[in-house]
Design a protein that fits this description.
The structure holds two protein chains of two kinds. Chain A is an all-alpha fold. Chain A has one domain. Chain A has helices spanning 3-20, 23-50, 60-76, 82-90, 93-98, 105-134, 142-168, 177-190, 202-208, 213-216, 218-225, 230-261. Chain A is globular, with a radius of gyration of 20 Å. Chain B is mainly α. Chain B contains twelve helices and no strands. Chain B has helices spanning 2-15, 20-46, 55-89, 93-96, 102-108, 117-133, 140-164, 166-169, 175-183, 195-204, 207-219, 227-251. The longest helix of chain B has 35 residues, at 55-89. The two termini of chain B are 32 Å apart. Classes of the chains: A mainly alpha, B mainly alpha. At the A-B interface, helix 2 and helix 8 of A face helix 2 and helix 9 of B.
C-alpha cells in the first residue's frame, strides 16, 4: 500500500501503541466523562416518569439506550482542540508542521483516529456495566447498525474539520478560546448532547438544521435507538458527506490565507 | 489568618495585571449560566415540578451551584493542581520548610481571581430566583450562609483528599476532568438520583448535599438532610482531610531523598 492510505495506517498504528500505554489515565478520563450522560439520563427519566412514562417519544428505557450510545459518540467527538493551536503557535512548533509533505490536518486525523480504536476497546466493558445498571431498550436494525458504524467516523471527521477551522483563527488572534467556548455551548444545546433533538422546542430544532452539530451527535445515536426508515438513515449519511465537503472547502480557503499570515517563533 | 489574607492580597495584585483575562472569564460565565438556564427551561417546558422543586427553586439551586463552582475554580482547584505538580516533582520540600502550617499554605497559594466571577453571577442568580419565588424568610439568610460555608468545606475536603492521594499514586493528571464531571451532578437536587447514587453523592462524594442543602434552607423546603447534619458532615470531612494530609506527608520522600 502506498500514498495517503499507507500513511494513515502507519500513523494510526503508532497512535494505538502510544495510547495503549496510558490505560489507567484513559479510564480516569472516561470516569469523569461518564458523569455527564448519567446526569442527563436521570433528569430526563425523572421527567418521562412524571409525564406518565414517556417524553417526546422517549421512554426511560430508550433514554437509557440514547445516553449509553452517547458515551461512545462523545468519545468519537474528541478531536484536536483549538487550544492545541495556541500551544503549537506559542511554542513555534507550527513551523515544523508547515514543512511536512502532507497537509498537517492528516497527522491529527490519523493520530486521533488511531486513538479511537483503543478508546472503543476500553469502552466496551464500561458500556456493558451501564447496560446492566440502566436496562436500555435499543432499536437495532441491520441498516441502522451499518449506518451507525459509518456515521460515528463521519462525526469524527466533521468535528475535526470544524474545530481545526476555529483553531486556525489563532493565526489572527492568539485567543481563539472565547470563540471555541461559544461553539461548545451551541453544540451542547443543538447537537443532541444535552437532550435528544426532538425534545427541543420547534424554533431550536429549526436553528439546529443550519449547523453541523446534529450530524456529529444525535444522528449516529438515533440510528440505533429510535425507529428510522432506511431512506432517512441513508439520507443522513448523505448530509454528513455534505458537511465533510463544506468543512473541507472552508478549511482549504482559510488555510491558504492563514499560512500566509503565519510568522513562527524564529522565523 | 493574617497570613491567609496576605496570600490572597498578593494573588489579587498579580492577577489584576492581566485584565484581558477578565473579559474572557466574563464570556465564559455568561455562556455557562446561559446554557444552564436553557437546560432548566427545557425541563420545565415539559413538567411543572422536578422531584418537588419548581422552576424558581431550581434557579436558586443553580445559583448556589454556580457560587460553589466559583469557589472551587478560584481557590481549590488551582491549589490542588499546583500541589499535584509539586508532589510529582518533589518541590513540595520548599513549602514544608517554611514555618507555617503547610496544609494552610498549600491551600491558599495559587488563586485565580477572575474565576471568582462565578461567585457573583451565582449570587445574582440566587437573588433572582428568590425574587421570582416570592421572597425569603429573613431567618433563612444566616442559616443559608452557614450551610454555604459547610458546603464549601465539604467540596474543599473532597477535592483536597483526592489530591492528597497523589502522595501514594504520584501521577493523577486527569483529576480536573474527574472532579469537573462529578461536580456537575450537583446541578440538580440530590433527591432525583436513585438510592445508591444519592448515598454516594452525600457521603462518598459529598458534592450533592453541599449544593442541595443550602438551596433547601434558603427556599424553605423541608430537607431530608438538615443543616446540623451538614455541619457535622463538614467537620468530619475536614478532620479526615487533615489525617490524610499528615499520613501523606509521612509517605512523602521529597526530591533529594
Amino acid at each position: 500500500m502506498t500514498g495517503l492510505p499507507a500513511f494513515y495506517l502507519a500513523a494510526a498504528r503508532q497512535s494505538v501503541i502510544q495510547r495503549f500505554s496510558y490505560r489507567a489515565s484513559n479510564y480516569l478520563f472516561m470516569a469523569g466523562m461518564l458523569a455527564e450522560p448519567v446526569i442527563y439520563l436521570i433528569v430526563w427519566s425523572t421527567v418521562a416518569r412524571a409525564q406518565g412514562g414517556s417524553v417526546g417519544g422517549y421512554t426511560p428505557g430508550s433514554l437509557a439506550a440514547y445516553y449509553i450510545v452517547w458515551t461512545l459518540v462523545r468519545n468519537m467527538n474528541v478531536v484536536y482542540a483549538p487550544a492545541g493551536f495556541e500551544h503549537r503557535i506559542a511554542t513555534g512548533r507550527m513551523s515544523g508542521r508547515l514543512l511536512l509533505p502532507l497537509h498537517p490536518i492528516h497527522y491529527d486525523l490519523a493520530g486521533f483516529g488511531g486513538a479511537k480504536v483503543v478508546w472503543i476497546a476500553q469502552w466496551v466493558p464500561v458500556a456493558a456495566v451501564l447496560v446492566l445498571v440502566f436496562r436500555p431498550e435499543f432499536h437495532f436494525t441491520v441498516v441502522g447498525v451499518l449506518v451507525f458504524l459509518v456515521a460515528i467516523w463521519g462525526a469524527f471527521v466533521i468535528r475535526s474539520l470544524f474545530l481545526w477551522l476555529i483553531g486556525l483563527v489563532t493565526f489572527w488572534t492568539t485567543r481563539a478560546s472565547a470563540l471555541f467556548e461559544l461553539y461548545l455551548v451551541l453544540e451542547l444545546l443543538l447537537s443532541g448532547r444535552l437532550v435528544p433533538i426532538t425534545l427541543l422546542p420547534q424554533w431550536m430544532q429549526n436553528a439546529a438544521a443550519w449547523f453541523p452539530f446534529e450530524w456529529t451527535f444525535g444522528f449516529p445515536i438515533d440510528a440505533v435507538v429510535t425507529p428510522r426508515s432506511p431512506s432517512v438513515l441513508l439520507t443522513g449519511l448523505g448530509v454528513q458527506a455534505l458537511w465533510v465537503g463544506i468543512g473541507s472547502l472552508l478549511l482549504a480557503v482559510v488555510w491558504r490565507r492563514a499560512v500566509r499570515r503565519y510568522t513562527g517563533v524564529g522565523a | 489568618m493574617k497570613l491567609a489574607l496576605l496570600y490572597l492580597r498578593v494573588q489579587l495584585l498579580n492577577e489584576l495585571q492581566y485584565r484581558a483575562n477578565f473579559l474572557l472569564r466574563l464570556v465564559h460565565s455568561v455562556l455557562a449560566l446561559g446554557s444552564g438556564l436553557v437546560a432548566l427551561a427545557l425541563v420545565f417546558g415539559q413538567v411543572n415540578r422536578l422531584d418537588g422543586w419548581d422552576a424558581h427553586q431550581l434557579l436558586v439551586l443553580m445559583g448556589v451551584y454556580t457560587m460553589l463552582n466559583g469557589v472551587v475554580q478560584m481557590l481549590v482547584m488551582p491549589n490542588a493542581l499546583q500541589l499535584l505538580v509539586e508532589i510529582e516533582e518533589g518541590t513540595l520540600d520548599l513549602v514544608l520548610l517554611k514555618p507555617v502550617d503547610a496544609q494552610l499554605a498549600v491551600s491558599l497559594r495559587a488563586t485565580q481571581v477572575w474565576q471568582g466571577l462565578d461567585i457573583l453571577t451565582g449570587a445574582g442568580t440566587v437573588v433572582v430566583g428568590l425574587v421570582l419565588a416570592g421572597g425569603v424568610q429573613p431567618a433563612a439568610v444566616p442559616a443559608f450562609l452557614i450551610a454555604l460555608v459547610c458546603g464549601g468545606v465539604l467540596v474543599y475536603s473532597f477535592l483536597m483528599s483526592l489530591t492528597i492521594s497523589a502522595f501514594w499514586f504520584v501521577k493523577l493528571d486527569n483529576i480536573g476532568e474527574l472532579f469537573g464531571g462529578i461536580f456537575q451532578a450537583a446541578r440538580w437536587p440530590v433527591g432525583i438520583y436513585p438510592g445508591w447514587l444519592r448515598i454516594g453523592l452525600t457521603f462518598l462524594v459529598p458534592v450533592g448535599v453541599a449544593v442541595t442543602v443550602p438551596a433547601e434552607v434558603l427556599t424553605g423546603k423541608p430537607s431530608g438532610f438538615g443543616l446540623l447534619a451538614l455541619a457535622v458532615l463538614a467537620a468530619a470531612a475536614l478532620a479526615v482531610t487533615r489525617v490524610l494530609w499528615r499520613r501523606g506527608l509521612r509517605h512523602y520522600s521529597g526530591a533529594s531523598a
